[in-house]
């Protein structure tokens, strides 16, 4: 996409997306793809406050923080369109999926130290290799495989959950990731056509917004399931009547 104003960050060295570059500022390459990460940061911050206030396990605090780091990395990437910043976006994406895999599978993992050690070493090795090699389509395939590894466990949690509101969290998780993926594909496949439209539907920015909401639903559903495992009597309640979160009642012995 051709630049409209001077570029503060220099020539594009990363993957470019279907939004005209530097249309509103010489400091922000893709304006909508940058600001569309803000909802993810705000939702993750709300989830982090809830996790800390109710003293959930530290894994959930780390999970919400990882969502914020990922969103900030994505903002830097789309604001600059530089390869280094793209790596700063993609590497946390993989780390976050490894964290999801740990949270999903750790309750039934008999060798408690083996799994986190393996995932940590895997994440560190990926970061080193990714800093040296530009994967392209290989990164997308790798990330998709990590996502698919989470689905069987999420489905198991869903079918063993009887709470109607918690099941709705899982359904909304599935709906947002499905619609978001369609927006991402539409933006990539039809980019040449979209560039001639009077109004760009900003499919990639919509992907950011929907995935930020999706991550929050996923985190909230996992917090509910984990609280059930710990016997904390979880309930899904709503802040301001629309934003769901998990409220727990821990036994006094805990």
UniProtKB/TrEMBL annotation:
Keywords: Calcium, Hydrolase, Membrane, Metal-binding, Transmembrane, Transmembrane helix, Zinc
Entry's transmembrane regions: 31-49, 61-81, 118-137, 172-199, 205-225
Cofactor: Zn(2+)
GO molecular function, one term: metal ion binding
InterPro entries (alphabetical): ACER (IPR008901), ACER_plant (IPR044219)
Record's subcellular location: Membrane
Topological category with respect to the lipid bilayer: Multi-pass membrane protein
Binding residues annotated for Zn(2+), in chain numbering: 78, 204, 208
Membrane listed as a keyword: yes
GO cellular component: membrane
GO process annotations (BP): autophagy; ceramide metabolic process; defense response to other organism; response to salt stress
Residue positions binding Ca(2+): 16-17, 19, 21, 30
Family: Belongs to the alkaline ceramidase family.
Identification of the protein by name: Ceramidase
Organism: Trema orientale (Charcoal tree)
